[in-house]
Write a structure and sequence with these properties.
The radius of gyration is 21 Å and the shape is globular. It has helices at 9-39, 47-50, 53-70, 80-96, 109-138, 141-171, 185-208, 214-228, 233-276, 286-312, 319-336, 347-371, 378-385, 387-406, 418-433. It has one domain: Up-down Bundle (Growth Hormone, Chain: A). By secondary structure, it is an all-alpha fold. It is built from 15 helices and no strands. Helix 5 (109-138) packs across helix 13 (378-385). The longest helix has 44 residues, at 233-276. 74% of the residues lie in helices and 0% in strands.
Amino acid sequence: MKAKPDLKFNQLWNISFGFFGVQIAFALQQANISGIFSTLGVDLDKIGYFWIVPPLMGMIVQPLVGLFSDKTWNRFGRRLPWLIVGTLIAILVMTFLPNSGNLGLAANAVFFCVVMFMLLDTSINMAMQPFKMMVGDMVNEKQKAKAYSIQSLLCNAGSFVGNIAPFALAAIGIANVAAPGVIPDSVKWSFYIGAGIMVICVLYTFFNVKEYSPQQMMEFREATLVEESALDETATSKKHSKKSVKVFIEVAIVQFFCWIAFTYMWTYTNATIANNVWGTLDAASEGFQNARNWVGIVFAVQSVGSILWAMVLPKFKNIKVGYIISLLIGAAGFAWVPYVHHQYLLFVPYFLIGFAWAAMLAYPFTLVTNAFEGSKRMGTVLGIFNCSICLPQIVAASLSEKLYNIVGGKLVPESNGNMLLLAGILLVVGAVCVFIIEDKKHK
């Protein structure tokens, strides 16, 4: 019996490098979809409902990818085949979604966009999940925090590229405005270029990573059980399973509040910046389109904050302390946004929000994969765990119109920034809930 070996930095890097390309696609979706729906004529107080689509697909797709990839063993690997399938679907959808307004669909343009939104998120989920699973499969407990921090860094680097793309293309002369109901060329070409980069990055991981065989995985699992206890394997497995499920639930509670907060950031940042900085909520105006591009810039600044903070996270000896500090800093950023009326000053709160995002990408998966170390069904576990990301987004989207009206959005649309203040409060609640997590190293 042998334990999982330590991996070199380049091996850890290769496992997650494709995430860079996948995250470009995800960032383009997150930063632009609210603006796209507004351009197609959807009322601001109804946009939140469309954000039910991504997490709903995630709750369906991610557990299935985890379940079936646990059983997928062929010459291409265990998780890698699913990565390729998800990528192929994503690049096709990325060519159609930004053309929702100019395919001669008229009143059906919104419906077509919703379908493309659903398919894009489905494919992105299929492509993202294998990266998280490969870290769980191939990286030992000692290196997991480092591996997920590398993944967080690459993820945020991809977000940076995806977020600045429309602004950068507009700056070099690509049209940033279009006829009413039509998506500008700066957005279209961002999606096209993002699809190309995604293919290159995913293929890099595919050709540079060799997954462990079923026999090797069995040896690693047996070594973990022996290390856990000198008791018989059945008793050890039951004890291990009970503690693992407890950690799973505790981390999911923290996730619930954090992901509601970020759902409202993705949904309402566009309108908040358009109103507070450009003084308009007219989706057909040039000011609103400029605000949409600026959303990508502030989200890119958030990514920079996340990249830098991801380098700090492994230095925290106590994961829970790092988690709490990160969420509280992010909460301060959210609370600041509604009171900012200068476009460049927005860099500060969104940079701070990036600290929370870095922690959310790294710590939950570190805690859960450590808790389930040695499990034969790591993919299924992580697939189900992703429901702790998807469910709060569904709750957030379902309550969005009601909460939007409670904070004054319907009567005074200019108050939509209060949804970001609410997001800050939710991150504070999430930080408090970190105290309940029973990490075996940091109780």
